[in-house]
Amino acid sequence: MLTFLKEMRGSVLVLSLKGNLDAITVPELKPEIDGIITDRRTAVVVDLAGLTLIDSSGVGAIVSLFKRVRALSGDVKVAGVTAQPKEIFRLLRLDRAFDIHPTVEEAMAKFPR
Amino acid sequence: MRLMSGHSSGRIRISVPARLAYRDAVGALVKAVCVQLEETRQARPGTGDEVLSAFNEAFNNLALHAYRGGETGAADIEVELLPGQIVLRLMDRGQGFDPTRVTPPDLASDEVSEGGYGLFIMRSFMSEVAYQRGDGERANVLTLVRNLEQDRPGEQRNGHDDVQKD
């Protein structure tokens, strides 16, 4: 099960994910990602503090969001990765692409004001 | 398969429809067996998450590809404990899907890929990954073996892959 919340904090969109992001739940997230691109959000923080499980499909969804926002000359930062998702991020060396921070606040602070 | 503090052995076999909706029910069993191994100190902490991650990728492939284009059949799952090992076997009687033929992602590249990570996750978290294609009588079998003393991925690799073809 996946729950998500989109919230504007100033000019930054914070997308908070809770539960499992995997082959079962990624189709639920795709319209939200499409909406972020349609709205041309160029400063996005993905908050994964509530995420308990991710698989390769979930990773693909976040990478897709990252690439599409980058194509708008924007950036996606990731916050709060713990437990199993943290191990997957480490294994796949996703820090190559993502600016990863312990908290949403720290991630937000990295965007130009 | 009650796990005591010494070496445990035993086998559980479950048959479910090969649909993603059934993955977490079987995954919960896989995780529970691993957590007992952790609690009885037959496996290091983190084993459950790692084996479950590998199992999920394997089941995803089976559910999405094994019966593609036809009527969904069964996924037969075996969880076997051997001395020093946990063995998962995922079996189907569809067209199958050999994950060992998938090109691995280039983790050295600055360009991050959106896909291709499933087999890499399986190989990283398991000691052996082998696929045996079936025929009219025998099922396709994906076997995932985890040596319980396996190090954390990235710290030391002691596994290997073996593809068997008949």
Describe this structure in words.
Chain A is α/β, with parallel strands linked by helices and 113 residues long. Chain A contains 4 helices and 5 strands, in the order ββαβαβαβα. Helix content of chain B is 27%, strand content 24%. A 6-stranded mixed beta sheet of chain B has the order 1-2-3-5-4-6. Classes of the chains: A alpha/beta (113), B alpha+beta (166). The interface between A and B is medium-sized, with 25 and 31 residues.
Structural category of chain B is alpha+beta
> How helix-rich are the residues of chain A, as a percent range?
25-40%
Helix count of chain A? 4
Question: Which structural category fits the helices and strands of chain A?
Answer: alpha/beta
The major beta sheet of chain A can be summarized as: 5 strands, mixed
Query: Uncertain regions of chain A: pLDDT < 50 for 5+ in a row?
Result: none
Number of beta-strand segments of chain A: 5
Uncertain ranges of chain B:
156-166
Biggest sheet features of chain B: 6 strands, mixed
Q: How far is it from the N-terminal to the C-terminal residue of chain B, by CA?
A: 32 Å
Quaternary structure state of the chains depicted:
heterodimer
The helix-strand sequence of chain A is EEHEHEHEH
Order of strands, main sheet of chain A, comes to 1-2-3-4-5
Q: How many DSSP H or I helices of chain B?
A: 3
Strand percent estimate of chain B = 15-25%
Give the strand order, joined by hyphens, for the main sheet of chain B: 1-2-3-5-4-6
Q: Residue-averaged pLDDT of chain A, rounded?
A: 95
What is the straight-line distance between the termini of chain A?
35 Å
Shape label of chain B: globular
Task: Describe how the helices and strands are arranged.
The complex is a heterodimer of chains A (113) and B (166).
Chain A (H helix, E strand, L loop, with lengths): L1 E8 L2 E10 L4 H13 L4 E12 L1 H16 L3 E5 L3 H9 L7 E3 L2 H5 L5
Parallel strand pairs in A: 2-3, 3-4, 4-5
Antiparallel strand pairs in A: 1-2
Chain B lengths: L9 E8 L5 H17 L7 H20 L7 E9 L2 E8 L25 H8 L2 E5 L7 E8 L12 E2 L5
Parallel strand pairs in B: 4-6
Antiparallel strand pairs in B: 1-2, 2-3, 3-5, 4-5
